[in-house]
Amino acid sequence: MQDIGIDSLTAVLTRNHLAELTGLTLPAKIVFDHPNLKALGQFLLPKLLEAATDLSPAPTVAVVEGSVAAPVIFGWNTATIEKGCLDPQLRFDNAIQVAACPKAIFITGVTGFVGAFLLHELLELNIIAYCLVRADDVIQATQRLVRILEGYGLWKESYMPLINPVVGDLTQPLLGLDEEAFEKLAGRVDAICHTGALVDWMRPLEDYVGPNIISTHEVLRLASRGCCKTIAEQMVAAARWRGAKASVYRLLFVTASTRSGHFRLDRGDFLHNLIVGGIEMGSFSSLNADLSAVLPIDYLCKTITTMVTKGPATVGREYDFINANASSFNTFFKLVSAASGVGEIIHFDEWRERALAWAAAKPTSSLARISAVVDSLTEESAATMFRCLPVDEHVFDTNDCCNPLVDEQFVQKYWQRINAVRVVS
């Protein structure tokens, strides 16, 4: 450990941080008692599993007055899951070999923006897709899937034999399935693509627990059966320690398709509302930032699909994305202004004042949807919001692209699609 810069002070700080993360009582010399990180991890893992087992509640749980007991999944308290702990019963001894190219994939979030485009890429490769959909029955689930893909201009009749709707609920134990259906599903798929999540900055933290945390835990439970940014990432990392073959793809700002201009349709996209709001109001904010964290949906899903179907060599890593050909936001806003025929670029403080007044006067407008975030921003924090986060070892960038991904041609298609949606609505 001393070879990587651990001294007596950082050893204590590391012990304190580990104790806080794990809830374990650890000796002050724990870092020096183990020669490397692997040995330290091997020491901690059984203690974490033992502690987690001890935390499993009895069938009857006492409720403290003024509080609500956390739900229980197979004797495993969801309050513990919310902290990023993985059910100690989950093992991944089944993950012995990864298929070179999966023939059948279970995919969540298919009615969302990323999920729909990712499903399209998989279907283009003739991969059978088991799609988790919230619906009353399989017929309604199928109709919903077709409608979503049609809405993004992605549907082909030839996809129908490849689509297998799975009626369930992302936020529930076993993904809303019964035990038998869950087991059968696990035996039918070679891989899992988990894209389902709540993406809405304006929602309280507790709203994210079911769709973002419980869902990841139950997807990992599915991966532990059959033959096949955050708390969710923490659980995936824990699963890998137990033998799971899992990768994480970190997406920042996902923008419209370069091929069709299709954008997220549920009106919860901050960046899209910022752009359309600027068009509606007739002005854009000057921002000291570029589009390096902004990438088109079709590029992202094509890249992920390629990696998923490449085989074992690409599995078991965290992947980041960067737009290496990024223009500045001011240049981008000038392109949007030229395409739409409206909009000037003004200082942030003036734009913010105008935007909040516009949102108050027009409560159904695009800017009104993001006014709570805009109200909390300063010129500096607005620029920081769009900067890339620190990346890990494995990074996809766009240097291989002949032209910038977000350029004048992209803006023209994006504007045409915005206009088309306005006319329809």
Describe the structure.
The chain is α/β, with parallel strands linked by helices. The protein folds into three domains: 2-56 and 70-82, Non-ribosomal Peptide Synthetase Peptidyl Carrier Protein, Chain A (Orthogonal Bundle), CATH 1.10.1200; 104-246, Rossmann fold (3-Layer(aba) Sandwich); 253-424, NAD(P)-binding Rossmann-like Domain (Rossmann fold, 3-Layer(aba) Sandwich), CATH 3.40.50.720. The protein is 44% helix and 11% strand. It is built from 16 helices and 13 strands. The radius of gyration is 24 Å and the shape is globular. The termini are far apart. Mean pLDDT is 79; it is low at 54-75. One of its GO terms (molecular function) is transferase activity. Residues 1-48 form the Carrier domain. Pfam families: NAD_binding_4, PP-binding. This is Acyl transferase/acyl hydrolase/lysophospholipase. Keywords: Hydrolase, Phosphopantetheine, Phosphoprotein, Transferase.
